[in-house]
Design brief:
This protein is α/β, with parallel strands linked by helices and 596 residues long. 45% of the residues lie in helices and 14% in strands. The protein contains 23 helices and 18 strands. Strand 9 and strand 10 form a beta hairpin. It binds nicotinamide-adenine-dinucleotide. Nicotinamide-adenine-dinucleotide is lined by residues 11-17, 34-36, 40, 91-94, 102, 119-121, 142-145, 237-238, 241, 245, 277. Nicotinamide-adenine-dinucleotide binds at residues 11-17, 34-36, 40, 91-94, 102, 119-121, 142-145, 237-238, 241, 245, 277.
């Protein structure tokens, strides 16, 4: 006999509960919405009316449908109101004893055939289920924030959840227009197990003043295409909830230090800085519950004018190298109006490079993004040389040669001899310590990292890496140049992986470890991150694109520098690389790719 779930109860109407009420009511299901106090009930009701009013204003919901939706919800204080519902979803705070108490009471109040579900993110559904006399009818239904928007639902089946209950809930999710993945009861399930180590790591970077909140968030949005940065996401999740999730994952998930909540989170929770819901977290919001960020004392002030005052004028730029990055970087500078001196190791290389830059500019013309005259002007601004001496009078040198420290050091030593005083010397290294390169010169204060992303003409992010010797003036110049190029320059310290790779690759590595442990499939893990967190690609799709060898090399660097046990490369990743399965470029990685 399959259950139809004609009416459901939602317990706890905070960040998640109010959204879950909306999901059901939108899909024609009657909802009994329950809170502890009248005031909390009112808050939940206001969240729902606010959300549905916005949908009407945006033309996404007809006014009559909103009224019908609201009429399906009955608002009640106390669990007794749930005696007749077919399914209850609990969304109260992430504390085991609290949830166990509520489930014991739900078990007494609800009819015997009712299914009891928890929206927990990290607690054991099994431990919650044994507080009832019907553990076979207890299941995890884990929605994502915001529930009406995010498509994914993780269905968590314990060892005793009955197969019919799982099947009925899967059918219900389809009816709600959601995509489900059904998994077993492990801390953090799929998405949070992969997400929270990353979020905690991002907070640790803020705590260490490695980079600003704005720069970390911009880096992950622009560098990885994520819908929001990690700190804005912490604010959306709620710092109290995030703290509880991390703490539980630490205790349940093998005491991985990366899940031990960074002390700053606890301090912020104690101080009442809970994120959007309290109006202040990592950012400050217009009012509690509002998504609108307002300036506060950490907001960078009138950056433009201070930058101009400190930055050195830059008109002529040298670019050393002839590979993919050099090609893109030359194009970017020439298009932005800089005079560019390109230096390669020989006339033949210069000729090839000229062709590559011309081809790329022509593509812009064909796509209608660049006029022919602008293309010709850009090309006219570039001089092609095979002699470093031609860099004697440039204002900025961007080095983009092979990723080998000895080569870069020798080059910087030569630049030091050749270039005029006051030049800014930049390296595009993505993995070597910038300070090593800087110390090959007599002027480390003028050396900075300028980490462009590939393809440089398309990607708007540049990581500006300042070493402990980089002067404020050099950093300001680098920032001003990025602005002139129409790029977003984010400033960070000189640590392996800078911001983006340091936060991205451990997450990818964790996904491989999850696959290796047979917790889920590559498809479901990719789905979970795309539909639950809005990522443009799942981890395995991305690994295949980036290349497994490249990913392994980056992960090894991170591990060697930070000695964080959790960063140790996944054995499966090492084996695939050894086997020559490097991703798209070899036709096989985590998946098969037909070669064209
Ligand atoms: N915040 C997220 O992004 C997110 C995402 C998915 C799942 N979750 C999970 O959802 C659950 C709720 O988290 P949240 O972020 O919505 O928390 P929240 O703090 O925003 O809301 C919890 C609500 O529960 C109410 N409540 C407390 N005790 C109650 C009781 N005995 N009866 C009825 N209501 C009670 C509180 O008044 C509050 O309104 C947690 O298990 C959390 O891990 C959270």
């Amino acid at each position: 006999m399959t259950r139809e779930f004609a009416s459901v109860g939602v317990v706890g109407l905070g960040t998640m509960g109010a959204g879950i009420v909306e999901v059901f009511a939108r899909n024609g299901i009657d909802v009994v919405a329950v809170e502890v106090t009248e005031a909390a009930l009112e808050r939940g009701r206001a969240t729902l009316t606010g959300s549905t009013d916005r949908a009407v204003a945006k033309g996404k919901l007809a006014a009559a449908d909103r009224d019908a939706l609201l009429a399906r919800v009955s608002w009640q204080v106390g669990l007794a109101a749930l005696h007749a519902v077919d399914l209850v979803i609990e969304a109260i705070p992430e504390q085991l004893d609290l949830k166990q108490r509520i489930f014991a009471e739900l078990d007494r109040v609800c009819k015997p055939e009712a299914v009891l579900a928890t929206n927990t993110s990290s607690l054991s559904v099994t431990e919650i289920s044994v507080a009832t006399t019907r553990p076979n009818q207890v299941i995890g239904i884990h929605f994502f924030n915001p529930a009406p928007v995010m498509k994914l639902v993780e269905i968590v089946r314990t060892v005793v959840t009955s197969a019919e209950v799982v099947a009925d809930v899967e059918r219900l999710c389809a009816r709600l227009g959601k995509v489900d993945v059904t998994i077993s009861d492990r801390a953090g399930f799929i998405a949070n197990a992969l997400l929270f180590g990353y979020l905690n790591h991002a907070v640790s970077l803020v705590e260490a003043r490695y980079a600003s909140r704005e720069d970390i968030d911009a880096a992950m949005k622009l560098g990885c295409g994520l819908p929001m940065g990690p700190l804005a996401l912490m604010d959306l999740i709620g710092l109290d909830t995030a703290y509880e999730i991390l703490d539980t994952m630490y205790r349940r998930g093998g005491r991985d230090r990366r899940h031990a909540p960074v002390p700053l989170i606890k301090q912020m929770v104690t101080a009442g800085l809970l994120g959007r819901k309290s109006g202040r977290g990592f950012y400050t919001y217009e009012r509690p519950g509002s998504p609108v960020v307002v300036p506060d004392d950490q907001t960078p002030v009138s950056e433009e004018s201070t930058l101009e005052a400190r930055a050195r004028g830059t008109a002529k730029v040298g670019v050393v190298g002839s590979g993919t990055m050099a090609t893109g970087i030359i194009e970017v500078f020439a298009k932005a109006g800089y005079e560019v001196v390109s230096v390669t190791r020989g006339a033949e290389k210069s000729a090839k490079l000229f062709e590559a830059v011309k081809t790329s500019l022509n593509k812009g013309v064909v796509r209608g993004k660049l006029g022919e005259a602008d293309r010709d002007a850009a090309l006219g601004r570039i001089t092609w040389s095979a002699t470093l001496e031609h860099l004697a009078d440039v204002d900025l040198v961007v080095e983009a040669v092979i990723e080998e420290l000895s080569v870069k050091k020798a080059l910087f030593a030569s630049l030091d001899e050749i270039c005029k005083p006051g030049v800014v010397l930049a390296t595009t290294t993505s993995s070597l310590p910038v300070i090593d390169v800087a110390m090959a010169t007599q002027r480390p204060a003028d050396v900075v990292g300028l980490h462009f992303f590939n393809p440089a003409p398309v990607m708007s992010l540049v990581e500006i890496v300042q070493t402990i010797r980089t002067s404020a003036e050099t950093t300001a110049t680098a920032k001003a140049v990025c602005g002139e190029l129409g790029k977003t320059g984010v400033v960070c310290g000189d640590r392996s992986g800078f911001i983006v790779n340091a936060l991205l690759f451990p997450y990818l590595n964790d996904a491989v470890k999850m696959l290796e442990a047979s917790y889920s499939t590559a498809d479901d893990i990719d789905h979970a991150m795309k539909l639950g967190c809005g990522y443009p690609m799942g981890p395995f799709e991305l690994l295949d694109v980036v290349g497994l060898d490249v990913s392994l090399a980056i992960q090894r660097e991170l591990y060697l520098e930070l000695r964080e046990p959790g960063f140790s490369p996944a054995p499966l990743l090492e084996h695939l690389v050894t086997a020559g399965y490097l991703g798209r470029k070899t036709g096989r990685g985590f998946r098969d790719h037909t070669r064209r």
